[in-house]
Amino acid sequence: MKNSEELIQQFILGNEKAFETLVLFYKDSGQQFAQRYIPDFHIAEDIVQESFVTCYLNRKKYKPSYSFKTYFYTIVRNKCIDHIRKQNRILLYEISNSNISVSAEEKLIQKETLASLQHTINALHKPYKQAIYLVDIEGCNYKEAARIMGRTLASFKVTLYRARKQLRQELSEEATHE
């Protein structure tokens, strides 16, 4: 990108032409980056557009000592994670409110079991909770989940192993107290 430092300075000052140039330069790569987290093209596209808006509104917070690409991709990544979390809440709500033909007693048991599981997962250490959520609820593969969490694959595998171990321990303790 020609005169990128000057372009970034103009962007920080609110120059719309400079911002348009940045948008044109990063929109395709941003879209591809978002689709690593969110496979749906249109949702990923919306996330990239929201990320550009966030970039522009928070341009005063940008530190020119960092790469604009890194700054922008971090915003895209965070918005993708937010979207995944939102989808999980919707999915858990739909599961808990499904109209499968079962008796009232079975529905109550399912609801209590789901609530207990959610409570136990939410009580876990944050990285553990995220690892379980990404792999076991969202269905991400290890490599993708490690990337989302900003960890190496090996570090992620250790975190997931420990998370599952702790979850099993917590659930078995709950079962013995009942």
Describe the structure.
This protein has 178 residues and is an all-alpha fold. The protein folds into 2 domains: 4-82, Rna Polymerase Sigma Factor, Chain: A (Orthogonal Bundle); 98-177, Winged helix-like DNA-binding domain superfamily/Winged helix DNA-binding domain (Arc Repressor Mutant, subunit A). 79% of the residues lie in helices and 0% in strands. It has 8 helices and no strands. The chain is elongated and about 65 Å long.
General shape = elongated
Would you tell me which CATH topology of the largest domain applies?
Arc Repressor Mutant, subunit A
Considering DSSP H and I runs of 4 or more, what fraction of the residues is helical?
over 70%
- Taking pLDDT < 50 over at least 5 consecutive residues as the criterion, the unreliable ranges are none
Strand content: under 5%
Number of helices: 8
Write down the domain tally: 2
Question: Could you spell the SSE succession in H and E letters?
Answer: HHHHHHHH
Q: Sheet with the most strands? A: none
Primary descriptors:
0% strand, mainly alpha, 178 residues, Rna Polymerase Sigma Factor, Chain: A, Arc Repressor Mutant, subunit A, 8 helices
Q: Quick summary of this structure?
A:
The chain is mainly alpha-helical and 178 residues long.
Helix-strand layout with pairing:
Blueprint: H1 4-12, H2 16-37, H3 41-57, H4 68-96, H5 104-122, H6 126-137, H7 142-149, H8 153-177
Helix pairs in contact: 1-2, 2-3, 2-4, 3-4, 6-7, 6-8, 7-8
